[in-house]
Amino acid sequence: MGWHSMVGYGMAGLPSLLCPAGAARQHSRAMVEERLLDARTSGPWLCIDLGLADYMTPKETSRLAAQIRRLYGANRQAEQPFWIYLTELVPGSPIHRECLRMNDGFSGYLMDTTQESYLDLFPLDAIVYLTPDSENVLEDIDPKKVYVLGGLVDESIHKNLTLQRAREQSLQTARLPIREYMVKSMNTKNYYSETLAINQVFDVLSTYYKTQSWPDALKAGVSSGKGYVLPDGEESVKTPQRDNTQENSLFPESLVQARAANCRFQAEAPV
Ligand SMILES: C[S@@+](CC[C@H](N)C(=O)[O-])C[C@H]1O[C@@H](n2cnc3c(N)ncnc32)[C@H](O)[C@@H]1O
Questions:
Q1: Cβ within 8 Å of residue 133, ≥6 positions away
Q2: What are the φ/ψ torsions at residue 168 (nearest 5 degrees)?
Q3: Which residues are CB-contacts of 45 (< 8 A; sequence separation ≥ 6)?
Q4: pLDDT in tens, the chain (271 residues)
Q5: 262 Cα: distance to centroid of ligand 1 (angstroms)
Q6: Which keywords does the record carry (predicted)?
Q7: I need a labelling partner for 30 at 20 to 30 A (CA). Which of 78, 144, 157, 184 fits?
Q8: Domains in the chain, start-ordered, CATH in brackets?
Q9: How far apart are the CA of 200 and the centre of ligand 1, in A?
Q10: All residues at 6 or more sequence positions from 212 whose CB lies less than 8 Å from its CB, including other chains
Q11: Ligand 1: residues whose CB is within 6 Å?
């Protein structure tokens, strides 16, 4: 059975026996699923690298599972969602167990999960590993690229961990343009950090993809606790760079299908 026929979103146009509220819920769920499935073929694509499990304590692993839940929830709400891959997700591993334990409906999440690495799924030159320690600044989101996030919660910071990993794998890297658009705020603890949780990074990416404005995007994802704020009057400055006329497909269809076959497709989305 192909993945299109595995999901129930074709129900939207059928006569419904549900009450109006139930029918509206079903309709909006169908719209969400349709948008997600569009992103699966057209991008943008986001990959969470779960090959970093050895660097986390059980408590950090639980926090990562909660961040995956928040990220997925935010993506379902997005007008222009990303298609999400969880790579190196080993069945029965601590992060898999925590995702199942803490995230209702995890096994039905509309995303691809695989034990394989992103290196086996995507062309190397399409991968951009996002890491706070990169010397490159992310300027725009290119729907032809796959953005990889380190599946890591590091309470005691592992500086350069993902940067090193990406360099060893000869991948492009980029960091969010926090210091380019934000300024340090007065804070009593004198604490400043450009390292965000993966769900916060996602909020930045998702808002940027929708608004094309880095100030708006950073405002959505960088909490005041990080010690950075927008300078006064710096919101809603657009950074138009995306060429909407470009062909909106990431890779040849054969590659999309090869990837789809490699990844376990999670058929039913949670309510
Ligand atoms: C909690 S951070 C982990 C930081 C860790 N020290 C490292 O080496 O990546 C989780 C992930 O979110 C992404 N991330 C966090 N802050 C970022 C930033 N400012 N720019 C780009 N990516 C960021 C990276 O993919 C990172 O691996």
A1: 159, 160, 162, 163, 175
A2: -60, -30
A3: 39, 82, 83, 84, 85, 143, 145, 146, 147, 250
A4: 332 223 223 333 445 567 878 888 888 899 999 999 999 999 999 999 999 999 999 999 999 999 999 999 999 999 999 999 999 999 999 999 999 999 999 999 999 999 999 999 999 999 999 999 999 999 999 999 999 999 999 888 899 999 999 999 999 999 999 999 999 998 888 899 999 999 999 999 999 999 999 999 999 999 989 999 999 866 665 665 544 333 333 333 433 444 444 444 343 333 2
A5: 27
A6: Coiled coil, Methyltransferase, S-adenosyl-L-methionine, Transferase
A7: 144
A8: 21-177 (3.40.1280.30)
A9: 10
A10: 238, 239, 240, 241, 242
A11: 130-132, 149-150, 152-154, 157-162, 175-176, 178, 194-198, 201
What is the token pair recorded at 36?
């997600």
- How remote is the CA of residue 154 from the centroid of ligand 1, in Å? 9
